[in-house]
Prior knowledge:
Elements: H1 6-11, H2 24-33, E1 44-48, H3 54-61, E2 65-70, H4 73-85, E3 91-94, E4 107-113, H5 121-134, E5 135-147, E6 157-158, E7 163-165, E8 178-181, H6 183-189, E9 194-206, E10 213-224
Parallel strand pairs: 1-2, 1-4, 2-3, 4-5, 5-8
Antiparallel strand pairs: 5-10, 6-7, 7-8, 9-10
Amino acid sequence: MKCDNTWECEIYGKKRHLNRYPFDSVVSFVFRNAPELGSSGDVSILEVGCGAGNNLWFAAREGFRVTGIDASVSAIEYAKNRFSREGLEGHFFVGEFSDLPFSGGAFDLVIDRAALTHTGYSTAQLAVAEIHRVLKLGGRFFFNAFGKRHTSYTRGHQGVDGVTNHIQEGTLVGVGQVCFYSRRDVERLFCSGWRLLSVQYCESIETLSPQNTIQAEWRVIAEKENGGDIF
Protein backbone atom coordinates (compact mmCIF):
# COMPACT_ATOMS: atom_id res chain seq x y z
CA MET A 1 0.00 0.00 0.00
CA LYS A 2 1.34 3.42 -0.95
CA CYS A 3 -0.73 5.02 1.79
CA ASP A 4 0.62 5.12 5.34
CA ASN A 5 -0.77 2.14 7.30
CA THR A 6 -0.58 4.21 10.51
CA TRP A 7 -4.14 5.30 9.78
CA GLU A 8 -5.42 1.73 9.77
CA CYS A 9 -3.25 0.28 12.56
CA GLU A 10 -3.02 3.17 15.03
CA ILE A 11 -5.92 5.49 14.25
CA TYR A 12 -9.08 4.14 12.60
CA GLY A 13 -8.40 0.58 13.74
CA LYS A 14 -8.33 1.88 17.33
CA LYS A 15 -11.48 3.99 16.80
CA ARG A 16 -9.61 7.30 16.78
CA HIS A 17 -10.38 10.25 14.46
CA LEU A 18 -13.83 8.87 13.64
CA ASN A 19 -15.10 12.37 12.94
CA ARG A 20 -18.85 12.83 12.99
CA TYR A 21 -19.36 16.20 11.33
CA PRO A 22 -17.99 17.66 8.07
CA PHE A 23 -15.15 20.16 7.81
CA ASP A 24 -16.30 23.71 7.05
CA SER A 25 -13.92 24.01 4.10
CA VAL A 26 -15.58 21.01 2.45
CA VAL A 27 -19.09 22.36 3.02
CA SER A 28 -18.09 25.67 1.43
CA PHE A 29 -16.46 23.94 -1.54
CA VAL A 30 -19.47 21.75 -2.27
CA PHE A 31 -22.06 24.50 -2.16
CA ARG A 32 -19.97 27.02 -4.08
CA ASN A 33 -18.80 24.63 -6.81
CA ALA A 34 -21.53 22.04 -7.36
CA PRO A 35 -22.81 22.45 -10.92
CA GLU A 36 -26.44 23.44 -11.35
CA LEU A 37 -27.86 20.32 -12.97
CA GLY A 38 -31.43 20.70 -11.80
CA SER A 39 -31.14 19.00 -8.41
CA SER A 40 -28.42 17.89 -6.01
CA GLY A 41 -29.20 14.28 -6.95
CA ASP A 42 -27.72 14.96 -10.39
CA VAL A 43 -24.33 15.88 -8.89
CA SER A 44 -21.78 13.13 -8.20
CA ILE A 45 -19.09 13.62 -5.56
CA LEU A 46 -15.99 11.52 -4.84
CA GLU A 47 -13.87 11.90 -1.73
CA VAL A 48 -10.35 10.43 -1.77
CA GLY A 49 -9.30 9.60 1.77
CA CYS A 50 -12.89 9.73 2.99
CA GLY A 51 -11.99 8.28 6.40
CA ALA A 52 -15.09 7.79 8.56
CA GLY A 53 -17.28 9.39 5.89
CA ASN A 54 -18.16 12.55 7.81
CA ASN A 55 -17.84 14.83 4.78
CA LEU A 56 -19.84 12.49 2.56
CA TRP A 57 -22.44 12.09 5.32
CA PHE A 58 -23.20 15.79 5.00
CA ALA A 59 -23.27 15.62 1.19
CA ALA A 60 -25.56 12.58 1.16
CA ARG A 61 -27.97 14.27 3.56
CA GLU A 62 -28.12 17.18 1.10
CA GLY A 63 -29.09 14.80 -1.69
CA PHE A 64 -25.80 14.52 -3.59
CA ARG A 65 -24.65 11.18 -5.03
CA VAL A 66 -21.54 10.27 -3.02
CA THR A 67 -18.63 7.85 -3.32
CA GLY A 68 -15.68 7.44 -0.97
CA ILE A 69 -12.37 5.62 -1.12
CA ASP A 70 -9.82 5.10 1.64
CA ALA A 71 -6.88 2.77 2.28
CA SER A 72 -8.22 1.91 5.75
CA VAL A 73 -10.53 -1.08 5.98
CA SER A 74 -11.72 0.03 9.43
CA ALA A 75 -12.63 3.53 8.22
CA ILE A 76 -14.62 2.22 5.26
CA GLU A 77 -16.51 -0.26 7.43
CA TYR A 78 -17.37 2.51 9.89
CA ALA A 79 -18.63 4.75 7.07
CA LYS A 80 -20.73 1.96 5.55
CA ASN A 81 -22.29 1.12 8.91
CA ARG A 82 -23.09 4.74 9.67
CA PHE A 83 -24.77 5.27 6.31
CA SER A 84 -26.75 2.06 6.76
CA ARG A 85 -27.92 3.04 10.25
CA GLU A 86 -29.07 6.46 9.06
CA GLY A 87 -30.67 5.26 5.84
CA LEU A 88 -28.27 7.18 3.59
CA GLU A 89 -27.04 6.04 0.20
CA GLY A 90 -23.33 6.02 -0.59
CA HIS A 91 -20.69 3.85 -2.20
CA PHE A 92 -17.46 3.09 -0.35
CA PHE A 93 -14.28 1.35 -1.49
CA VAL A 94 -10.96 0.29 0.01
CA GLY A 95 -8.15 1.19 -2.37
CA GLU A 96 -5.23 3.33 -3.44
CA PHE A 97 -5.59 7.00 -4.36
CA SER A 98 -3.15 6.49 -7.23
CA ASP A 99 -5.27 3.74 -8.86
CA LEU A 100 -8.92 4.75 -8.62
CA PRO A 101 -11.42 1.99 -9.55
CA PHE A 102 -13.76 4.36 -11.40
CA SER A 103 -14.43 5.11 -15.05
CA GLY A 104 -13.26 8.30 -16.70
CA GLY A 105 -15.47 11.37 -16.34
CA ALA A 106 -17.59 9.82 -13.57
CA PHE A 107 -17.66 12.72 -11.08
CA ASP A 108 -18.60 16.38 -10.95
CA LEU A 109 -16.57 17.13 -7.80
CA VAL A 110 -13.64 15.46 -6.03
CA ILE A 111 -12.69 16.20 -2.43
CA ASP A 112 -9.29 15.72 -0.78
CA ARG A 113 -9.52 16.94 2.81
CA ALA A 114 -5.88 16.45 3.91
CA ALA A 115 -5.52 12.89 2.60
CA LEU A 116 -2.97 13.20 -0.23
CA THR A 117 -0.77 15.26 2.10
CA HIS A 118 -0.13 11.99 3.97
CA THR A 119 1.49 10.42 0.89
CA GLY A 120 4.80 11.18 -0.82
CA TYR A 121 5.01 13.76 -3.60
CA SER A 122 5.24 11.16 -6.38
CA THR A 123 2.17 9.30 -5.09
CA ALA A 124 0.27 12.58 -4.86
CA GLN A 125 1.17 13.33 -8.50
CA LEU A 126 -0.20 9.96 -9.59
CA ALA A 127 -3.33 10.49 -7.52
CA VAL A 128 -3.95 13.94 -9.00
CA ALA A 129 -3.60 12.44 -12.49
CA GLU A 130 -6.19 9.82 -11.56
CA ILE A 131 -8.50 12.48 -10.14
CA HIS A 132 -8.17 14.38 -13.40
CA ARG A 133 -9.18 11.21 -15.28
CA VAL A 134 -12.32 10.49 -13.22
CA LEU A 135 -13.55 14.10 -13.21
CA LYS A 136 -15.92 15.32 -15.89
CA LEU A 137 -14.65 18.07 -18.18
CA GLY A 138 -15.11 21.25 -16.16
CA GLY A 139 -15.35 19.26 -12.93
CA ARG A 140 -13.67 20.69 -9.86
CA PHE A 141 -11.22 19.33 -7.31
CA PHE A 142 -10.65 20.53 -3.74
CA PHE A 143 -7.05 19.87 -2.65
CA ASN A 144 -6.12 20.47 0.99
CA ALA A 145 -2.52 19.99 2.15
CA PHE A 146 -0.36 21.19 5.01
CA GLY A 147 2.07 24.06 4.45
CA LYS A 148 5.77 24.21 5.27
CA ARG A 149 5.34 26.86 7.97
CA HIS A 150 3.40 24.30 10.01
CA THR A 151 5.10 23.70 13.37
CA SER A 152 5.15 19.95 12.75
CA TYR A 153 7.25 20.35 9.58
CA THR A 154 10.45 21.03 11.53
CA ARG A 155 9.63 18.67 14.41
CA GLY A 156 10.19 15.35 12.64
CA HIS A 157 12.64 13.37 10.50
CA GLN A 158 12.82 14.11 6.78
CA GLY A 159 12.34 10.95 4.71
CA VAL A 160 12.24 10.06 1.04
CA ASP A 161 9.82 11.58 -1.48
CA GLY A 162 9.26 14.67 0.65
CA VAL A 163 7.66 12.98 3.66
CA THR A 164 8.28 13.95 7.28
CA ASN A 165 8.19 11.05 9.75
CA HIS A 166 8.12 10.66 13.55
CA ILE A 167 6.67 14.11 14.22
CA GLN A 168 7.18 15.11 17.86
CA GLU A 169 5.42 18.49 18.12
CA GLY A 170 2.51 20.44 16.73
CA THR A 171 -0.97 19.27 15.75
CA LEU A 172 0.24 16.36 13.61
CA VAL A 173 1.80 14.17 16.28
CA GLY A 174 0.78 10.53 15.89
CA VAL A 175 -0.64 10.68 12.36
CA GLY A 176 2.26 9.01 10.57
CA GLN A 177 4.03 10.48 7.56
CA VAL A 178 3.13 13.92 6.25
CA CYS A 179 4.14 15.86 3.14
CA PHE A 180 4.27 19.62 3.60
CA TYR A 181 3.76 21.83 0.53
CA SER A 182 5.21 25.13 -0.62
CA ARG A 183 3.47 27.33 -3.22
CA ARG A 184 5.83 25.93 -5.84
CA ASP A 185 4.96 22.36 -4.85
CA VAL A 186 1.27 23.15 -5.28
CA GLU A 187 1.80 24.71 -8.70
CA ARG A 188 3.86 21.71 -9.87
CA LEU A 189 1.04 19.39 -8.86
CA PHE A 190 -1.39 21.25 -11.12
CA CYS A 191 0.91 22.20 -13.98
CA SER A 192 -0.91 20.21 -16.68
CA GLY A 193 -4.57 19.77 -17.51
CA TRP A 194 -5.86 22.03 -14.76
CA ARG A 195 -7.02 25.59 -14.33
CA LEU A 196 -6.43 26.93 -10.85
CA LEU A 197 -9.51 28.79 -9.63
CA SER A 198 -8.40 29.48 -6.07
CA VAL A 199 -5.16 29.00 -4.13
CA GLN A 200 -5.60 29.94 -0.49
CA TYR A 201 -2.92 29.72 2.17
CA CYS A 202 -4.39 29.59 5.67
CA GLU A 203 -2.37 30.00 8.84
CA SER A 204 -3.35 30.21 12.49
CA ILE A 205 -1.17 30.62 15.57
CA GLU A 206 -2.03 29.29 19.02
CA THR A 207 -1.04 31.98 21.54
CA LEU A 208 -1.77 29.93 24.66
CA SER A 209 0.21 26.87 25.76
CA PRO A 210 1.96 25.53 23.76
CA GLN A 211 2.66 29.03 22.54
CA ASN A 212 3.28 29.92 18.92
CA THR A 213 2.16 26.58 17.51
CA ILE A 214 1.42 27.23 13.83
CA GLN A 215 -1.26 25.44 11.84
CA ALA A 216 -0.62 26.03 8.12
CA GLU A 217 -2.52 24.60 5.18
CA TRP A 218 -3.32 25.08 1.50
CA ARG A 219 -6.86 25.11 0.15
CA VAL A 220 -6.84 24.78 -3.61
CA ILE A 221 -9.72 24.59 -6.09
CA ALA A 222 -8.77 23.37 -9.56
CA GLU A 223 -10.92 22.76 -12.63
CA LYS A 224 -10.34 20.02 -15.19
CA GLU A 225 -9.35 21.97 -18.26
CA ASN A 226 -9.27 19.39 -21.02
CA GLY A 227 -10.52 15.90 -21.73
CA GLY A 228 -7.15 14.17 -22.06
CA ASP A 229 -5.23 12.31 -19.38
CA ILE A 230 -2.27 14.09 -17.79
CA PHE A 231 0.24 11.24 -18.15
